[in-house]
Amino acid sequence: MPQPRILILRAPGTNCDVETAHAFQLAGGQPDVLHLNRLLEAPQLAVEYQVLCVPGGFSYGDDIAAGRIFANQIRHHLSDVLQEFRSAGKLLLGICNGFQVLIKSGLLDTDDAAGPAASLTWNDSGCFMDRWVGLQTEGDKCVFLSGINELYLPIAHAEGKFVTRDQSALKRFEEAGQLVLRYADVGGSVQPFNPNGAEQDVAGMCDTTGRVFGLMPHPERFVDFTQHPNWTRREDRGEGVGLALFRNAVRYFS
Ligand SMILES: NC(=O)CC[C@H](N)C(=O)O
């Protein structure tokens, strides 16, 4: 396959769609930005794509809870088409608000017989946090994190605290190898290295196949060295480390 096609799904209030399309383009993909209403009108449009990405922002103004309305649109109207998308061996990515959407839509395999067993809620600080964080990957399950050990990326969220219903749910995700990205004291991180109080320092998780991935940090905001907060004092003049995630997605289809 020459160039995988990427569907960037936006809703009212999404604000990272253009940067995310740019990152996929730099990585060699062919992105299209599509309004959620277009997909609701014609769900089969998704069949044309290899990767579906829900970008960051404030979809529907974060009303009710961040990502909730977008996630309910998926649960009630797009669940079949997106489950088929996943079963066909394709990739789904949710960045920040996109992670909130994926986790609340059930696409990250967090539901059980009693309902949703994981979510993202208000930061411990009660504030919107906008800063850079150190991150460490775990295991080799997640397609997007293949070959990546550490990352340094920006976060910008108010509702990024990963929570589970109870210890047994947490254990289930851990044993399935789904907790693949954690805040860590690496690569220039500031204290506290866990910015929001997330359980087990979880910053991102994948589904049980490793092909659906959501993360709170923004890899699309570090694709060029000039986006690093200290770039004028660093020797690194290459691409930003965030680009590796998008390259992994594109490479998966070549
Ligand atoms: N950058 C984002 O995607 C923000 C996510 C969401 N609006 C929050 O504040 O938690």
TrEMBL record:
GO cellular component, one term: cytoplasm
EC number(s) from the headed UniProt entry: 6.3.5.3
The organism's place on the tree of life at top rank: Bacteria
GO molecular function, a single term: ATP binding
Pfam families (alphabetical): GATase_5 (PF13507)
Gene Ontology biological-process annotations: 'de novo' IMP biosynthetic process
Protease keyword on record: no
Keyword annotations: ATP-binding, Cytoplasm, Glutamine amidotransferase, Hydrolase, Ligase, Nucleotide-binding, Purine biosynthesis
InterPro entries: Class_I_gatase-like, PRibForGlyAmidine_synth_PurQ
Protein name per UniProt: Phosphoribosylformylglycinamidine synthase
Gene name in the database record: purQ
